[in-house]
Amino acid sequence: MTSKILTIATGGALIASALQSCKPKDTSNVVSGNASVKAYVAPGKFDEVYNFVSGGFSGQMSVYGIPSGRLFRVIPVFSVDPEKGWGYSEESKPMLNTSKGFIPWDDLHHVQLSKTNGDADGRWVFGNANNTPRIARISLKTYKTEEIIEIPNSAGNHSSPFLTENTEYVVAGTRFSVPSDNVNGDVPINTYKQNFKGYLSFISVGKEDGKMDIAFQLECPGVNFDLSRAGKGVSHGWFFFSCYNTEQANTLLEVNASQRDKDFIMAVNWKKAEEYIKAGKGRKESVKYAHNVWDESTHTSTSEIKNEVTVLNVKDFPDICYMMPCPKSPHGCDVDPTGEYIVGSGKLAALLPVFSYSKILKAIESKSFDGEYEGVPVLKYESVLHGEVKKPGLGPLHTEFDAKGNAYTSFFVSSEIVKWNVKELKVIDRAPTFYSVGHLCTVEGDSKNPTGKYLIAYNKITKDRYLPTGPELCQSAQLFDISGEKMEMILDFPTIGEPHYAQMILADKIKNNSTKIYKIDENKHPYVTKGEKESKIVREGNKVHVYMTCVRSHFAPDNIEGIKMGDEVYFHVTNLEQDWDVPHGFAVKGDANAELLIMPGETQTYKWVPNGVGIVPLYCTDFCSALHQEMQGYVRVSPAGSNVPLTWSVGTNLPKAEETATK
Amino acid sequence: MKKIIVIASFFVSALLISCGGEEKPAAQGQEAATTEEQPAMAEANPESYDPKRGEGKWTAELLALTETLDAAKADAGEKASNVKCSSCHKYTDERLVGPGWKDVTKRRTPEWLMNFITNPDPMLDKDPEAQAMLELCLVRMPNQNLTDDEARGILEFMRKNDGVK
């Protein structure tokens, strides 16, 4: 068949532009004719790729399907989520505990998928809390936050989470240098140079269970640490951190931290640091940080405050860290799939330097130094440089890779993605984004074996792109097909909060691992109710524990009397369902709490402090069956000191006459 | 050369078919969704459906029931029923969410019961008796993910409940 078929997306406005080129930077001329076919996933069909997207100032992480751009789930991480009871159920409250107490919000900026041999292994995804420094580990079986660890000696945990090639460590740098936690921080702000330090934290990750523990911290010069990637393949054992504000300014950084021609990318030999720690060279520092763990068998989390970290001052061990000069406030710092090339992106630079790992080793060996910075040797720029990409665009930020030796770099100021060849440093293609792209990601694009195929640009500004919604507009993701020589934009969709960074993984790696139900037989919650016959109420002083079950479509018990003002009532609700996709919800009228969502086989606890005498309804909030509207109950609240006995029942209608007669 | 402009991608597959092409999903290169988890729908050949046995792995031969009760199995089954079944089924003839269990082993064959409690969704889609109960109760019996041992115990408990000694 020789017919040429042009498929035009439903927006008919695109027809004209597909046929003729017109003014640049008009969306219409960057959407190719068959874009809708490439991004179309028919109803009932699965996407090819999972996309884990940070929620930025929402504090959460969202899960999308690619290429359709369909949103599947928002995973609550660092912010309370009344929709899912996260931070409201008694079981989840400890997850948001910190050394400063319960904190209901944070700012989740970066995600990274766990790795084995440098490839995404689909076990966990990690996320960072920017504001109150923490790292979270999320299970890709349950899509639930399983662990959160706080990071001492850190302030503004933007520089994380970065994983080594076998997830030996998740690493976190500090954005704000600050005085260490164990010294008196009541010092003049302008003593930055003497008193402020930059710490890098190496958090070990359990090989089987993923459990995190702060293995050691490196005390580094006081600068702003920015982005980082671990070495891989040949450069496994190293980390590369971009640093800015090497001017050590403490005010008006936009001017004062932009003075020097070159800041640094700091190369860290973490295997070497590990050796020193094993040899007992670290010093113990007294600090305070929370470590919160979710236990899947008890459906409950615990929070433990820990009191010590081991620190190495890199000044005392001059073969751990080396500074590589990098033009103009480097931001992105990305390592190519072979591990040989490190791409630095100076936010204010007009070129992209690419460093060579083998040259770094040679320069260290031959001591090709250019003095030192705060006690850390500075390598000569020319000795470690593979080459520069000239005039790539304005405001380079981040780079990911495909399977063919190409790199894709985002340019914030010129709002574009530039494709270039890593070895030859030649620009191959450029594509506009709408507008002001920050991070980008390709499929498994930071791994040893990127799939390429799709690229997503995350844009900060969307005015004139969507129907307006008042002063606050959504941010957006723009999907490109990068399988050909030219990048093709195929879809554009809004996101939750700020889609700061995201990663993509092939769906086949994880889609069959999803947990479907929690087995009721394995439920070890201390207040589980295994079967309706076990349901009961136990009063302990003014604390009342309700052992409640739910199943389509009733609670047991669903009539409760004898609750008094001044009581604290704990509804421990067990979902007896053992079928996939049948959660039940639970809410109480007029209560200053959120709802619970209870997964099949799970027990969750809702705390209720009655705030008035009378009849209080409760009901199931998640549409569960044809008789969902019947899934409800009543609690009778009597005044303090009342002699109404504590009774409970289900299925007993029309109480006896004498009970009806009680006032 | 013909130039055809198709508005909205939904028409692409139809067009390919009309041009004599093979039917393909609109998004080519997409692997079809795996549907192994989904039960086969009701259009299955009615000839092959045995309403006495239901659909599932259980047969009379596989069950090999004895006339007398296996008391240990019945006790284990009662425990499992109390956790996973009794929220909706009374052990008397009274209907709660679902029908009461009294005399259920006289109304159904053992293999039908075993298949229904372990494989409810496909049977609710095609079994006339199961569908009649659904019309009455209006709640699809959930799949409680019973193990083979649990299901076998529950059947024995139902037999005990119906007077088998």
For this entry, give a set of tags.
heterodimer; A: 663 residues; mainly beta; Methylamine Dehydrogenase, Chain H; Immunoglobulin-like; 10-stranded mixed beta sheet; 8 helices; 46 strands; disordered N terminus; B: 165 residues; mainly alpha; Cytochrome Bc1 Complex, Chain D, domain 2; 42% helix
Description:
The complex is a heterodimer of chains A (663) and B (165). Chain A is 7% helix and 44% strand. In chain A, strand 27 and strand 28 (406-411) form a beta hairpin. Chain A folds into two domains: 49-513, Methylamine Dehydrogenase, Chain H (7 Propeller); 524-661, Cupredoxins -  blue copper proteins (Immunoglobulin-like, Sandwich). The N and C termini of chain A lie far apart (86 Å). In chain A, the strands form ten sheets. In chain A, strands 7-8-9-10-18-19-14-13-12-11 form a ten-stranded mixed sheet, with helices on one face. A six-stranded mixed sheet of chain A has the order 42-41-44-45-39-46, with no helix packed on it. In chain A, strands 36, 37, 38, 40 and 43 form a five-stranded mixed sheet that branches. Chain B has a domain at 51-161: Cytochrome Bc1 Complex, Chain D, domain 2, CATH 1.10.760.10. With 165 residues, chain B is mainly α. Classes of the chains: A mainly beta (663), B mainly alpha (165). Chain A binds chain B through residues 1-10, 12, 15, 36-42, 44-46, 48, 67, 517, 519-521, 530-534, 549, 551-554, 556, 576-580, 582, 625-627, 651, and chain B through 1-9, 12, 15, 19-21, 25-28, 30-34, 82-84, 86-88, 96-97, 138-140, 142-146.
